[in-house]
Design brief:
Elements: H1 3-6, E1 14-18, H2 23-40, H3 47-66, E2 68-72, E3 75-80, E4 86-91, E5 95-101, H4 104-109, E6 111-118, E7 123-130, H5 132-146
Antiparallel strand pairs: 1-2, 2-3, 3-4, 5-6, 6-7
Helix pairs in contact: 2-3
Amino acid sequence: MSYVQSSLMNGEKIILFGSIHRADLYFSFTISTIGLSFSLLGFIYLWPIFISGVFLVCQSWAKISSTEVAVTNKRIIIKVGHILRNTVELPLNKVESISASQNKPGEILGFGTIYIKSIGPSTTVIPKVCDPFRFQEIASSAVKAHK
């Protein structure tokens, strides 16, 4: 059972379950492939590049698999990490605004950053969310419906 599902309150329903894009994995696999290819061609000194790429793949996969982002009819819930777990639970009545941004690679691959401004000086940033404008639209609708 996921963190989001286990932390639902009475009468709370998940409206949207977001995910983190696998863009970091593309870069990591590329580094690993280049390092392995050149190492097999006889460039022995490039093995560290392959090892670094494998480490990056593991790190990226751990981040992707441990991140949960959800919008419910009462809260926005974010959980990051397996071992060192950080959670943010924002009640919808405390959310002032939700915005999204994309750079060119994000536009091509379909990911972007979500900014959730809550009452007070804090802003929660969620990088590399899949389809950020859809997330923004649904989360904003949930905030408006809750008020």
